[in-house]
Write a structure and sequence with these properties.
Elements: H1 2-26, E1 34-36, H2 45-55, E2 60-66, E3 69-74, E4 86-90, H3 91-97, H4 108-114, H5 117-123, E5 126-127, E6 138-142, E7 146-150, E8 155-159, H6 160-163, E9 175-182, E10 186-197, E11 203-211, E12 217-221, H7 224-232, H8 237-240, E13 244-246, E14 252-255, E15 259-262, E16 267-268, E17 276-277, E18 283-285, E19 296-302, H9 303-307, E20 315-319, H10 321-327, E21 341-350, E22 353-361, E23 367-376, E24 385-389, H11 396-399
Parallel strand pairs: 1-24
Antiparallel strand pairs: 2-3, 3-4, 4-5, 6-7, 7-8, 9-10, 10-11, 11-12, 13-14, 14-15, 15-16, 17-18, 18-19, 19-20, 21-22, 22-23, 23-24
């Protein structure tokens, strides 16, 4: 009887192992991961998009692309900046600009040089002299917080203290204005008033939705609850059809890099705190925003499937911290099944590219090493290529 029981248990264990192997093979989880120990050798659309994002981060705000030219608004601003400046560069210029980093085994110093503000301004960005060539609004703050707006269709001076009286804005306040978004029929401004504290004991941030003919202006505080109130009251109805559409269904729209709206229900799609929204608003990385990204099977959904709360995934891939540490010969604190990972964050996430920052614990104290991982899905979404390079991009936890 005992022999039969042992035989049965062995058979059951074998079946479970085989089943696990079949599942792994189904999703390519059992196949060998491709690790590359240098920066990508060739340029690609997804790599160029990442380099554009990282090199220009905090310097300028990307507005749109016209043909093969990218248009930006000034992003380094404070209350002393009275006009809005615009810049441009072509895709070919960016490709030539970051060419020196291709195939580099130690790209950290090269990337740091590419991000130099002086170098970017001299060799990459060109100031747009006539904003009307790209249908951009001309914006100028005059005395007593009077904001002059001129478009190709109209011109108007906004008396901000009068327009925003209910929020406590005054003529003497120090106000900063930024252009968050500019599309065919509208643009969005952010007004920051550092002289006013809200009931949340924060500085006042207001969002202005403005039609390009200046026929309609909607004011909202920047947080989602306030925008939802405007949606409920119907104040944004005439803007909904003009907002940037995302996804295949055209049901969802994307606002200034962080807010998704369902145009059928006129409700903001709630993104869970532990989930990570892609730069273009098209995808959600499940559990990608946790304090420490866990390894194992990673899951990514389209915004449609995420909003439907189903379990249909656009991408499923395997992330193995212990395997990466072994590739890099890191002497970590990990032993057995433990990876020795200390910090793990997503630094960049878009349709075909993810950039991670990993820091491993030392065997006794300190760290065993840090690395950036560029994950390229362009050739195979279920079996991406992992580029292991030190770009000097710190984890979110280290930045905090």
């Amino acid at each position: 009887m005992r022999k039969k029981l042992v035989r049965f248990c062995l058979i059951l264990i074998a079946l479970l192992i085989l089943q696990g192997c079949e599942i792994d093979n189904m999703f390519n989880f059992g196949s060998k991961t491709t690790y590359v120990h240098h920066f990508p050798e060739e340029q690609s659309p997804a790599l160029t998009e990442f380099m554009n994002n990282y090199i220009l981060m905090s310097l300028v705000e990307k507005l749109f692309k016209e043909n093969k030219t990218l248009i930006f608004a000034d992003a380094i601003r404070n209350h002393t900046d009275k006009t809005m400046l615009y810049y441009e560069h072509t895709e070919e210029q960016m490709e030539q600009y970051y060419k020196p980093i291709l195939n580099a085994k130690e790209p950290y110093d090269i990337l740091r040089n590419l991000r130099s503000t002086d170098k970017v301004e001299k060799e990459l960005l060109t100031r747009i002299k006539d904003p009307f060539n790209y249908s951009l609004p001309v914006l100028a703050m005059e005395e007593n917080n009077q904001l002059r707006i001129k478009t190709t269709l109209n011109e108007k001076v906004l008396d901000l203290p009068k327009l925003m009286k209910e929020y406590g804005v005054k003529k003497t306040d120090e106000i900063e204005f930024d252009l968050l978004e500019c599309k065919d029929n509208y643009f969005i401004l952010e007004i920051s008033d550092y002289s006013v504290e809200t009931f949340k004991e924060e500085k006042l941030f207001l969002t202005l939705f403005i039609k390009k003919d200046l026929s309609e202006i909607v004011i909202s505080e920047w947080f989602d609850e306030s925008i939802q109130e405007k949606l409920n009251e119907g104040e944004l109805d005439s803007f909904l059809r003009d907002f940037q559409q995302i996804g295949e269904s055209d049901r969802y729209v994307f606002l200034y890099g962080r807010t998704i709206i369902d145009t059928e229900t006129k409700k903001i799609v709630k993104i869970n705190e532990e989930d990570y929204l892609s730069n273009d608003g098209q995808y959600i990385y499940i559990n990608g925003a946790k304090d420490k990204l866990e390894d194992g099977i990673q899951k990514i959904q389209t915004i449609e499937n995420y909003a439907a709360r189903n379990e249909v995934y656009e991408i499923e891939y395997k992330l193995n911290y212990k395997e990466i540490a072994k590739e890099l010969d890191f002497a970590t604190s990990g032993f057995g099944i433990k990876s020795g990972i200390g910090l793990a964050d997503i630094n960049y996430f878009n349709e075909n590219y993810i950039v991670l920052s990993l820091t491993y614990k030392g065997r006794v104290v300190g760290t065993a090493g840090s690395i950036n991982v560029l994950i390229d899905f362009q050739k195979n979404k279920q079996k991406p290529t992992f580029y292991l390079v030190d770009l000097g991009i710190a984890s979110i936890s280290q930045i905090r």
